[in-house]
Known about the structure:
The protein is of the alpha/beta class. It has four domains: about 5-30 and about 40-290, Alpha-Beta Barrel (TIM Barrel), CATH 3.20.20; about 320-565, Alpha-Beta Barrel (TIM Barrel); about 605-680, Methionine synthase domain (Methyltransferase, Methionine Synthase (B12-binding Domains), Chain A, domain 1, Orthogonal Bundle), CATH 1.10.1240; about 690-805, Cobalamin-binding domain (Rossmann fold, 3-Layer(aba) Sandwich), CATH 3.40.50.280. Helices cover about 45% and strands about 15% of the residues. The strands form five sheets. The chain has an eight-stranded parallel sheet with strand order 1-10-7-6-5-4-3-2. Strands 13-14-15-16-17-18-19-20 form an eight-stranded parallel β-barrel, surrounded by six helices. Strands 22-21-23-24-25 form a five-stranded parallel sheet, sandwiched between helices. α6 packs across α7 (about 125-140). The protein is globular and about 90 Å long. Residues about 595-600 have low confidence and may be disordered.
Amino acid sequence: MKRSEFRQLVSQSVLILDGAMGTMLQRAVPVKLHCPELATVDYKSAVQDIHRAYVAAGCNIIQTNTLGGNRLKLGVYGLSDRVDELNRLAAATAKEAVRETPGIMVAGDIGPSGRLMAPMGDLTFAEAVDVFREQAASLAAGGADLILIETMADVHEAKAAAIGARMACDLPILVSLTYDEDLRTLTGSSPESAAVVLDALDIDAIGANCGFGPDMFISIIEGYARVTDLPLFAEPNAGLPHMCDGASSFNLSPDDMASYVEGLIAAGASLLGGCCGTSPEHLKAISARAANARPTARKRDGVSRLAGTTDVVTIGDSSTRLIGECINVSARKALTAAVAADNYAVIADEALAEYRDGADVIDVNMGLKLKNVTEREAMIQSVLAVQRVVGVPLSIDSVDTQTVEEALGVCRGKPLINSTNGEPAHMERTLQLARKYGAAVLGLTLDEHGIPDCAEDRFAIAERIVTRALEIGLRREDIYIDTLTLTAGSKQELVPETLKTLRMVRERLGVRTILGVSNISHGLPNRAELTAAFILTAIDAGLDMAIANPHLRSIWSAIRCGDVLRGRDQNASAYIEWAGDNPLDGSTTNLASSRDREASGVKENNLTNAVIKGDKSTTLAFVESMLAGGLAASEIVNGHLIPALEEVGERYEKKVFYLPQLLSAAEAAQSAFGRLSGELSASESNNTLGTYILATVKGDMHDIGKNIVGIMLRNHGFRVIDLGRDVDSTTIVQTALKEHADLIGLSSLMTTTMGEMETVVKEMHIAGCSIPLMVGGAVVTPEYASMIGAHYSCDAIDAVRVAKQLLGK
């Protein structure tokens, strides 16, 4: 199917996606499926009957039985060499099933890899892209009409999947994320920030699926609709799962599900379907309710947006934004020394300081040649370090396109590429990278001949950059132009040309503008004052973003005053808030902002805070210093490491920290525990809080959540015996008895395997095992835990709390 055909269809009527495949197979197949993707081989007619049932219910799009069809998930079953076979077959099977019904589209279904993306896990961005490219290529070859990427809990993995799928084919690509009840993904993205990232990719629709029932999906779709005009879709569960006669069941009837149709369409959804627990009956009710509905018309708002790991920055609405310029190794010897010493904690500290002083975007420049580290490696490590401590967008500052591409692979969110210019080859390569990775791009008004003196010649370069960017597929709001600030000390006569070009770019090209304003005062005294005065004139000329030092009060004074005088700051609200935080006291450096009052960072330089920041190298340095100073290993553990982990847990529960910060802190703490293990006495080493048996139940191959629980339990002092995934009840119970375990923890992600927890309970009764049992996982509820006589935990932090509570610790 052509992408233009899909866009036309979805603009004219509400399309209906199908519902659950797993629960339908559970009913249709006489045996318990170990690998659901093999059902297409072993029970082809049953799979086709499910496809036909959804078509009969009124579905326009059916999904292939390939949610776990990538080589990483298939590899768990020893089937990694059958990716092409199983995906081609699934697509062909679906096409064959609907051959007699014209107009039905087959979506090649792609789910998550089953592994955490680096640095939280070991899956690199490049590997993820290739994994998803391979699966998408096979689905397309099998006859899929479009590609549906769904159940993604990490926007960065969703980005990798979208890039891989686009490399494989030119079919329409739909991307769907899954959220928790706080409307955040596993890695902390809100619907708005996720949509900003996905909107910039070469895809055709954005959606949400799984997690919970349709009531909360309205808020998700509304969040998407605020920042994108791409078609939107919703595939909610049929409410909450519960066990009935040994099988999973959901609490929403077809009519219950259909009652949300109008609300979802009004919010902006133009495709509706179902996920766990939904059936042809549910989709029939949804289809009937949506039969005469038309999608809600939406238009792009023309506002520019960048996104970090959690935060979205809007450019062009009201305020002049500031890009922090201080992470620049060529301008600061201390940073150069830190990078040369592999001490990226200094980079993270500077990023946090810039954020605290109000920077909207953090620029990262590693452009100095060092003997022992390449620019690419320094850039990658710096991006990772910065993202550990701040959630705002990044500016990838390099003229080396290979460095830029590698940085884009580890950079989460939607960054700014800083920069390209009018030199044809460099411009082409950089713009193609921006399109591929969904980044915004900054173009400099210079080319192979240098920087023109006059505004007209600079404008001509800007026009070439903008024209080519639009041809490649970048949106106008993702294109920024820097008309180049030259120092007033030696090029005073050219300062007006910079401002003149700025006005021309805004008025004639309609793109955003950026200036490195600090250059104006280079080599002159009282630099901050001259730079501030230049900012005022630049704002009047149409400046959108200033690259500057956020630590200087005079810079912020100019921005806040300029926005009031230009009419950008309605009712001077931003100015008043800033002035309240920064009363006149003669200082040009001491800044305060509302961010100083946030609990998102740490200021003191000590072991506890090094762990909280996830800084492994600094953590180890503090441990060595404390040991050298005579502090006992047990005192370091109990007085510093455990309190740090407790603080991290509190921030995680308050949604100040998310999974990336949680895992980086855990890794830092683990490095300290590893160093201290040899220093602890035998009695201290054996003095654990208790032995915890951990397993994913029989038939379930998912283990990300279980592994995170294990990490946190170990760091809090538990001896953890992780039995892995797909573990039978006898092995779990017998291991617990043999190891004299204090607790057993079970995980299940699928409704089809949740009943195995009850099997473990029965096995425990038979064996006379009275060890406390804790259960958790995406489909597990407190009610189900209570029903089988187990204790419930909602996440890794809660698992630690419940475990300590049960053992009276």
